[in-house]
User: Fold these one by one.
Assistant:
Number 1:
Amino acid sequence: MLPNSNEIQYLCRGTADFELLPSLPKLTPFSQQACDFLAELSSEIMKNPESRQYPDVITFGFFCRKGNVSRLKEAYQGKIENRLGRGVSFHIAPSNVPINFAYSMVAAFLAGNACIVRASAKPFRQIDLVCECMNRVFAQDRFKSLHDYITVVRYPRSKEINDYFSSLSDVRVIWGGDATISEIRQSPLPPRSIEIAFADRYSIAVFDAKAMCAAENMTQIARDFYNDTYLYDQNACSSPRLIYWLGSEEEAQQASERFWTAIHESLQGKYTVEPVIAVDKYTAACRCAIDLGAEIKPWRDNLISRIRVSHLRADVIDYRCAGGSFFEYAATDLNALRDIITRKYQTISYFGEIKDKIAEFILSNGLSGVDRIVPIGKTADFTLVWDGYDLISQMSRIIDF
Amino acid sequence: MTNLELYNNAFKEAFGVEEADLAGLEYQGIANWDSVGHMNLVSLLEDAFDIMMDTDDIIDFSSYEKGKEILAKYEKTI
């Protein structure tokens, strides 16, 4: 029985009775119905004038468009024909990335599963907007029968509700951090069920100093960087914490001034720093000055905290702070990354023609972390392979014959 | 509808512009053709012509005229 049901807010209510979910027919990966539904959802999102205000919502709508889903399906040809979804998937989306719930749901739905999605409890408009679009699509006759497969909810912390949804799950997907993973793991899964957990991870940006000095469109660069960082209060796993300037001391100095001036301009009127975050950032900067001997660049206001270190200590990441706090380091090669990269590092975003150089560095040094190297502005772009997991394969089962 | 009409309609719908504004229109040349508007344009064009555009073509699609060249690759003569 579903406990505390009055604590649950339904943003998209599929089945009226969760107990019936396990007996729903499992879908094949990239089933025609699922692909058609996503194409329709994409149109609904792209046509909605309100979506334009939210680049993350538009990006999600763009991801779901027919052309992209067909392309994704093509990439799985030969790998999905004898598969079915595992059954019921239960998703615990992160509190800080509004649109993440939707990607998690789409991956599980495309793999052939029914989805119960717990969206962030924070009242992000993006979440309601996407759910309103979904509800309009499900209201169409041809998609009514699919609605049982998708439910999106919000609820405050509740072990009882977690217990209940977990007891129905064939797949549980937890988008960290580590504390959330531990908390959700208090709720048992049925014996055959699997779990995919995305733990806390950290990311870095490597910028070619010369390229930054020569860059023509600083407005675009600032917008890209904003989408990587401030859009998620710098709390996403893929948000860079450290800016690694590749170049001489002088070049790095010049490039960073140019870069941060553009960032500062772009933040005006767009981002506000809560007083508590301003205090956290200040405290973090002071700790870095004391413990790491960091140079704290003068603050014009509370928007950007720049912490310049002259060497990268292995534990530098433990001094991190969110909401616009950045370590900076400059060198003419990447060698210092060897000292800090562990499996806790996820994404390197870059600017300049240095992608191959970074990839070669990771591979030739056999580093245990960094799974993705993407251009600035693309850190949050979702792919069906995430954090080293192939989500479609993980969330479906093979019928061997 | 002719291919040209389909093509022009996608621009008009994506950016709220008039037929007369189309010639010479460039990415970031007007406020509505930003990265968000670009995604809108691409999905409208894909729907209108029933094609799947390659990522490189989506990135190279930098003006009203350039777009015609790109669609020619998908055997859509504008």
Number 2:
Amino acid sequence: MNEPLATSWRSRVLGVFALPDRIGWRDHVIGATLAGAYVAWLVATARVLGFPRDEGVYFRAGATYFNWWRTLIERGGDALRLADGAFSDNHEHPVLMKTLFGASGYFLHQKWHVFADATTAFRFPAMCTAGIALFTTYLFGARLWGRRAGLVAALLLGLMPRVFFHAHLACFDVPIMAMWIWCVYVNWRALDTGKLRWAIFAGIVYGLTLATKHNAWLLPFALTPHALFVHRRATLAALKRGRISLPANLVSMALLGPLVLYAVWPYLWHDTIARLEWWVDFHMHHEYYNIEFLGKNYFGPPSPKSYLPVMVLATVPSVTLLLFGVGAYARGAVAVGRLRAWVRARSAPVPGAATTDSRAEADLLLALSLLAAITLFFFPRTPIFGGTKHWLPAYPVLALFAGCGFDRVAAAMQTALPSLAGARLQAAQAALVASVIAAPLAVTAHSHPFGLSAYVPLVGGTAGGADLGLNRQFWGYTTQDAAAQYLNPKAPNGASVFLDDTTWDAWNRMQEEKRVRRDLRASGNPGDAQIALVQHELHMNEVDYTIWVALGTDAPAYIVRQDGVPIVSVYRRP
Amino acid sequence: MPVTRAKTACKLRPAVSGDEQKRAAAKAWQRYAFAAIPAAGLLELGAHVVQTHSVAPDADWKAAREFVATHAAPEDLVAFAPRWADPVGRQEFGPQIATVEREARADTTRFARAYEVSIRGAHAPDLDGWHREDAARFGGVTVTTLTNPSPVHVIDDLVSHVDPQRMRVSRVDGGHESECTFAHGPPLAGGLGSGPAMPPDRFVCPGGSNVGTSVVADLDYYPHRCIYTPGVGGDSTLRLRFLDVVLGSSLHGHHALYVEAERMKTGAPVTITFRIGDTTLGTIFHRDGDGWRAFELDTSAFAGQRAEVVADIVSPGGQRRAYCFEANTQ
């Protein structure tokens, strides 16, 4: 009697965890678990990462914006008069993320004390968007090619060192990556399901994407041709009837997208057209900053066409790129097969042999999305000072194809090793997953907090990147490491420190949060300073030489290094 | 016949089975091709482990330093490679060995011998063509001794004249010449975009101009030690008199502007005219974008003599004319 009862109990328990073929709520749980784990990892590793220049601006702007919203709620119309003042700070970028940074700072630090550091609270919304990116990538992959593909895609996305680095920051680069893939996914769902609620959702999400960062301007170049292609038969049929039929998601994006942007960005509530024009003009004629590439300092056009491919090869784990190649080839072969079948059907129609759409032409959508995210970086006038961060929206798609590639590899393993079954098969599959995520995990974990200095083993790691003359950092965020390793334990009491590329805002924050000793005094002039820092970038060499003359020594007292590569030199007046 | 048949069969059978074997091998290869992916993943992991554990420890640098300190003469070059390791070399070797004169050299021509301290098998590009004499390994750090196949003999270095005993500086406005005094003060320096630093010991001219020994970054951001003479602009001339210079057959030098000014290419040219007595040796123009450019003037008429060499520096526009030059007699 006991045996059947036990079996029944066991099967019931296992039944709860058994995943049905259909993607459903359990997959949302899986995606959310992945996202939650990733965000927890980000939070746990946030404090060792210093503050880049831009973050200081966004902390300040975020707090100002959120205060304005509080004023609006508390005092209503009075706040409207103050909108221009509040939102003129950093108005070259839309406000969604900054407002969330401010809200998080207020609630999670100031009010509820969830985070001891205000800056971790400010950063938390951006970390959550990294979680959203993993969640969406898993769900998208699972729906397209199965859970195995979705899972590996999400893991490989999170285990890109540059994604991991930027995911910590209260900036817009990972948020726009997340919004981009979310927007692509929602649009695909709208077309795949044909449901109005998904189409409406597509418009809302596109508006939020517009309110995140201007990369969103490029999304229509992917979404529009895709939607029109999916909708082609209905469009042609309608035209024959003298009507116009457009995909609902595009109509929704065109109508709701701008409305959402307008609603969340009070700066646009006055002089709307002029301010929109200024916004576009600012980014179309953006200033060029210095960046090193292959040993040369670039500070203006023409940008090297090889920048994106070389940087992708040098910063994305190679096994991820290999899997991407496998996946892209497999999907490309499917597309070519469909194209051939279509051509054959056109030349010799066979009843009942008409080609069918793949699921709402997902391959086409992903390919267009990838192209929309990267094409601009092959133009000579596109600034490259942001390193890889400006094309992060391409990475979820890259990861999705990598997930597809993994699925093919796993299927090939099963075919090659038919004797594997049951627990042995599961163990083999787990080992296969481990084999492709081990290196990305090790490289990503090791890169922190020097994510911008990190290069993959293919080019020799951090030192290999330095050998190649690839940029080691920007934004001066590594001063915190200099403080942890040298200034805090060794600087004389009250010493003045020349900060080089670190902003006063960042320095003040680091002192407020006890990351830097409070008695140390910041200086903007190496001539006045007892201690001088240089955050190593090629063009910062001029500051290095200035320090030699101003302090009378060319020998650093200490160097913050990653894998032996200088990150920050610390000079001390003899 | 049976023999022939047997032979034919023997010949054919391997041929057919060879194709089959190839096909079978190809199928097997395709069948197990999936293994390339986990293999690549593990290879990447292994490479990561090796790369992150192959950093030359401080002990290796210190051992290399002891070797160079024992062997290198003051006139020898000590250089570090790869370029990014230069700060590490300066820290480990200290300012007595990694001197500013060596680090911020005008070029390598004046050095007869070099000690190249390198990691990761790197080589200093400006020592290309030098003869390799010896190499000593200290763990991850290698010290290679190189000799210059055609070293140049520098007779007198004008940069070393920058002190009140060996140089006079004046500012000439119209016909009026005002002496600049040698003074000690806080260094004049700023952050990124501020231009080269002016050292604490310098000539201070009426109107705020200064002249001193500094280090300028060239267009590739290599350092060069030079006499920093920020342009005064207009018709004014900055006049440097180098006293008691030992002359050779030529006056050789380099000049540059602050790197940002060089690369923006928006400023007026700077001219430097060298004279000995009433003889004008030559006028050299430096235009934005020229970078750390070499020049040479014939002084063979004065070879073996000691004389005062005058350098007049003029630029019609003073905006960001952070001009720096070095010169020596050869």
Number 3:
Amino acid sequence: MQEQRRSEFSNKVLIVGGGMGGIRAALDLAEAGRDVVLVDKAYSIGGLMTSLDRTFPTNNCDLCTLSPRLSESGRQLHIELMTMTEVESLSGSAGKFTVNLTSKPRYIDLQKCTACGECYRQFPGCVRFTPGLDHRAPTCMRYPQATPYAFSIDMDACANIEELVRICPAGAILPEDRQRSREVDAGAVILAPGAEITDPRVLDTYGYGVYPNVVTSLEYERILSASGPTGGQLVRPSDGKKPGKVAWIQCAGSRGLREGFMSYCSSACCMYALKEAMVTRERFLENIEATIFYMDMRTYGKDYELYLQRAKNEYGVRFVRSRPHSITPVLSDGAMTGGLRIEYLPYNAGRPETEEFDMVVLSTGFRISTEVRELAAKLGIELNEHGFAKTGGFDPVAASKPGIYVCGLFEGPKDIPETLVQAGAAACCASADLSSLRVVQEKNENFPPERDISGEGTRIGVFVCDCENNIGGVIDVKAVTEGLRKLPDVVVSETIGHGCSRDSLERIQEMIRSEKLNRVVIGACSPRTHEAVFQDTLRKAGLNKYLLEIVNLRDQDTWVHTDNPAFAACKAKELMHMGVGAVRLAHPLVDHTLPMNKDVLVVGGGVTGMKAALSLADSGFKVFLLERSQQLGGTSRKVRRTLEGRDVQSFLEELIGKTESHENIQVLKQAVVVDHSGMAGMFKTGVQVGPRMVYRQIVHGITILATGALANRPREMLLGEHDGVLTQLDLDAVIEDNPQKVKSLKNVVMIQCVGSRIPDNPNCSRICCQSAVKNALRLKELNPEASISVLYRDMRMPGMQEEYYTRAREKGVVFVPYEMEDRPAVAADGEKVSVTFTDPVLGRKVNVFSDCLVLSTGFVADEESTEDLGVIFRLPRTSDGYFLEDHVKLRPVDLPTPGFFVAGAAHSPKNIRESIAQAQAVASRAQTFLAGDAINMGAAVAKVDGNRCAACLICVRACPFDVPFINSEGHSEIDPAKCHGCGVCASECPAQAIQLMRYEDDQILAKLDGLFERTA
Amino acid sequence: MDNFEPVIVAFCCHYCAYTAADMAGSKRLHYPANVKIIRVPCTGKVSAIHMMEALRKGADGVYVAGCLEGDCHFRSGNTRATKRVAYVKKLLDEIGIGGDRVEMFTMSAGMGEVFARTASDFTEKIRRLGPNPARVAMDNPGCAAG
């Protein structure tokens, strides 16, 4: 309708890199109605994560969570996927770029390839495959749920092309395939090319590549992986024996100044080493020892400290603080036994020690590849000395050229949740460069018309997923399906490998069509996570999506009864019978919809809240921004400089100015949320505003929580009692306002983790190490003679922050580790403060008289406000009072209740830059939600049978939402658009005149019958 | 009845108890296979008839598991369920089957451990009580019997 007017700008975003970051950005943009071209140089998308066995901190493989996303990504109407494709050149400017792309020949027709694997079976050498330890096992798909689900041929490696063409049953081999070029217009570009793993061969004393039992962490993941070369058996490469002692060596290639080392920290390795050690201990229990050699355990993310504690206390992982010097082979009669001897100098001893292990895992880090550097050069964006993209200080995903954004590892080393946050931020920024006129388009996803099944006899199809070994490894899925074939109306009963993979979903569709199925039962994982995927499958095959029953075989059976496979198999049979019984009574239903309110409520007026509000307001949404104090700015008002030296106050001033003057933002100060009702798309929130606490109600579609956290000021170590004791935040102001005082200081002591990583506030506050290094460097600059000691537990300076840590040491700042059991003691001594601590090298107590003791106190959750808001909005919180997101790994800013999002320090402690990235990510997620014009209320609504209703008013009184009323015909009526679907009325109705759709009484009773019926 | 393996039906609300059960699975916590979960949107949906029918058809024990008090996704469904379970218990006492065979539990979505412990404790309790005298289908050996 407004097609012509937006012609000047392109509505398309080019995304380079199809790893987790690229996929997330593509999905966010596509769901918000933008067009995306997603290119990847590999032949299937998914990136690094698809090679992992499991991911922290859930210790699930999460491929089941990822792979529907990948097929989602392949499916989305707005996403054009181009694999084996690279960028040649770029011209133009933000809003109207022209990009030249070239695609390498795949020699496979994607439309025809069914991934049957015949080519691989007959000519394994001709098929391309990358990850792994042994590059051929067990299949040549990059991972079992690959997208696109098709092989790729290496013609140069193929001697008998004619025969290869002949054996392909689908006729999909294209020997004449050629490289192709294409020009694409794009309004913005997102770069998510990822990073490569550092090559441990340069660490010559570790013997990687020489001793087979020294492996990289990624290789170890492949060994643990059920789809890896050993089928998930933990055996060491040299002799196939199960190792008894495994060691991890951290920072293998990172945090080093030697030749071949990266000088920065790779950020994710501490967590993945913990994960690998825990998984190893969990699978093999007492029979295996896991030891981690480390310099600092950097578990600074949300709840990551608890993960470290779990590894230590529950899993018995052993920690040795030391960077080993070398690995040598254990010899017996001059021959290598496969054993490895690690030589190391413990941090608190003067003498080197050695210990033998059966296997050593090198925690290798990330580095930017030459190819990516070349890409940056082609696009004309600046990189730092290590090849990571240069970005704005308060603009975390903006590259040096307007219109180009970055996310993930290319911006700096990081883990998956942070990559996804940046991906959202990049999507948000990119869409701001596109035409502001939104494309109004029905997202009808090309579903065929629904088949009318009235009059058809019941034909049930049963499909049982093996979920790799998650189900198939515990029970015999084949036996389950065979038993079910005997049940009445069951016409198809078969197993499907990886039920959520593209080919399995297509198989189900095919069976629905060819066997004229009109009911489907899927035995798989939880309907909570995968119902939508399977519902879509039914819709694609022309069936109403409610003719489906999902039986939770994984989460509620095979995962639970691993200790007794016979029970698990019997229970699986019963659960499947219950599913078949219930699906027989399922009938087609229609979703109810309501018009969506597109206004946004942002709670919290700090940097995060303002950034989120501005991003959405710029996109044309009306935003209500609530701030409980009298002024905007939050905790940032107290911060003067960032680690990189940027001026926070001038940034803040500009931000507040923009926010307060924006025509789409209404700022409400001294505002307190007092009540809340409704659902996503039609919330009503009551607020008391201003000094007089005037009540007003705000109607809005979504809610963003950006309530921040509090600067911690624990009553300990003389804080607030002695003038010589400051927090890092206090010192920040002193340095800025009173440099004379700083110049007079002689002996400064800083103590880390005061009020953090303790039982009362168990998590790491994340920002304190950087604050200490920042302030130490500024002190040294003003007063190079001052002696500065930092007493720490682990210096957590991830990514490029590591370089500031190195610089501080170079400038003479002394860093001394202390143990939790032996914390420094502090006592007043006149104007000075006496600090006593253990010197680990000397092995005895040392006493320092300090004229300035600085405590790194970090953050605490704003318990009072998150508790109130948690109750009012019904949102879950972590045990330490931060809001708990829907999925820590894959949905880091979505809250579990639809329509709620969280960003900034209300999520967990973080610095300003990280908060801004989350604010932008939240704005992106919000736009996907607000892109639709209707709220889907689902089909589970109560329905009254007027003939049976006696108008007794019980339902009218029972409904928690006051929906039922007695209509003009004298019986109860329930408006489906208002019904929330709890079913209270249905169970209270004495005449059984009310049924809750999807959960009708006869369906529940049919489940009971299914459980108790005999099928000998 | 030396090898008595009770059959237990657990009506779990989608938002809390069913999610807690999934959580128990993802944490690989063990609980007896005797417990079979039926998902309902809210425990307020579980009527007295559902509980009684479960017992009549062959269950030895029935429990309803919902959200913690004050946390119901639908405001008050769990408090209604609590009252209804109390009513069914009284009824069962009166007809001689024994009210101990039904129970109401509450937990949050994150409480996988509580879900597993509740399932184990309730199964043990029913095991001690012995088979449900009212069940019509006596020949179901139950899963845990192999």
Number 4:
Amino acid sequence: MSAGPSRVALFGATSDIAVAYGRRCAEAGARLVLVGRDPAGLVASADDLRVRGAAAVEILHADFADLAGLPAVAEAAWAAFGGLDLALVAYGALPDQATLEADPAALAETLELNFVSPAVLADRLAARFEAARAGTIAVITSVAGDRGRRSNYGYGAAKGGCQRFLEGLRHRLAAAGVTVLDIRPGFVATKMTAHLPRGGPLWATPDRVAADIARAVARRKAVLYTPWFWGFIMMIVRALPRPLFHRTRF
Amino acid sequence: MTGSAVFASWGNRLRIAHPVLRPATRDGAAAMVAGGPPGGLLAHGNGRSYGDVALNPGGALIAMRRLDRFIAFDPETGLLTCEAGVTLAEILAVLARPAADGSGWLLPVMPGTRFVTVGGAIANDVHGKNAHREGSFGRHVEAIELARSDAGRLVCTRTENAGLFAATLGGLGLTGLILSATLRLRRVAGLALETEDIRFDTLADFFRLDAESADGWEYTAAWVDCLARGPRLGRGLYSRARHAAGVAAPPPARAPRFSVPVTPPVSAVNGASLSAFNALYLRRLGSRRSRRAVRPYGPVLFPLDALGRWNRLYGPKGFFQFQAVVPPQAAEAATAELFAAIAASGQGSMLVVLKRFGAIASEGLLSFPMPGTSLALDFPDRGASTRALLARLEAIVMAAGGRLYPAKDETMARASFEAGYPAHAAFRAHIDPAFSSAFARRVGLLGDTVR
């Protein structure tokens, strides 16, 4: 990790994956700016990262559902240490699909928080990274974005939209030497999935995912399935012929 | 956040479904305690207690691993404040990194596994191979933040809420919920250890070696071949170590590289494997009587941590761990009697740790370490014969004026607990009315009914 990014912004800094990744950066001596909306959680996380070796930690309060405020958030995060080497966009919400089908406002909110908001934020950051001609924009999407499925297509569509947006952003930023990393985790034992029954070989810890992210950043990967076996699982899910697919219920 | 989950003792004999609370913040945890849900509460850390001290059938468990944040570290004084769910492995990985001259901060007391939480280390007032020099874990605790159902959040130190502080060190989690603690780390001139292993033939030789090692060696313990009988009774290996000034060592890994993936259908520890292990282990030094080396402290202090989930090797029936300490004047005779009883039973133990505790008093009302000699053993559960052996060992220890270790125990009688821990009566006054544990009910610290 010694050659990891030295100025890091974590958007959704108290999410479990961001915490685990932030700890790795801190232990390598990075400077971090934590962006989120839970003041007590951000302070606790900042203290933790300082003890772990972070050279500096700044806190930035933001509500990611407030789309109009996003450009200012991106600017403030960029300015905290006079530029960034890595931005990790790690916020999101996983509502119950049945709720989204019953409540159009909830569906719109989910699409906004999981797609529109990270897309707008990444786009604002892209301008800065492009001008600096270096760095990594990493966004946590999901394997759920790989194919629309009855059990979570509201969330999945937002994540899928994000994947497509990042693909385009990557195309644009390639010339500037900026890496755009699309992180697609499977089941991760986090606050977001606390309501789901857990356990079994498909579930990963946030720390495992963070380790994979660190490796993908170092290797300048474009798309990361984490843990790795999700790449194969989703290849099969995407390839299932529709008549067969429609007989599944997942 | 509530649910239900099965929690197993490390000995794998007890597997019990509990309602479980999983606080993500100290505020959230304190609110859960204040809410005082019906049935008793008990904190559960990293699940390394062998018996029933961390289980609470009929009540709920508070899973503490999410409270894993560091809060502050002062590199001038070595004072570390962290949440109760931080593991010792994590503290070592983050703070015990060697400086250019090989020196570094280190936990002053490290038990045989680093995969325990700070809360658990305090609640069981754990000890390590340097118990004769540094005392128990609690001696290096400066402050404890406790959530009580009847008094809210309290800071306990040696001067503030001092009675509750002493009760909470080794208090088996019954005095309230430990939210965070301040520990005093120790600066060592070299993180690596200079080690020496020495073969000995009799228990008398062990006691002689141990007496001559007490001053010059910080970490001492012995392994004894408990299958040996007659004139060979008491043969074993004595291990001693001290920090090597100027020699650096990296922290041990955060997780074992290899783990036992599944529980084999029968115990892998049996008569044949035990004879083979003992014969090989005794010949570790080849034809030499002793061997010196300079090594990182991880493999020296945490040999069992090399293999994750090693407890599964004992199969689906699990195993008992036995650990007791007998006072100095009775130590030599009682230790010989214990080994004779084990040899006579034919139930050997692979793990054997014979260790002398020093004169440093433990402060906890229910702390296990006291001056004397401690013996720890593992026995696969073979039913009635194993229980009979444990009862025999318990009788020898109690007759010698010793005590058994609650963190390892599943079988001690109430009378043995009360005789071994005379401060139990004073301790009762500090028990939080909303807390309970299987152990506390078993030894009569609480009524038999769920509270």
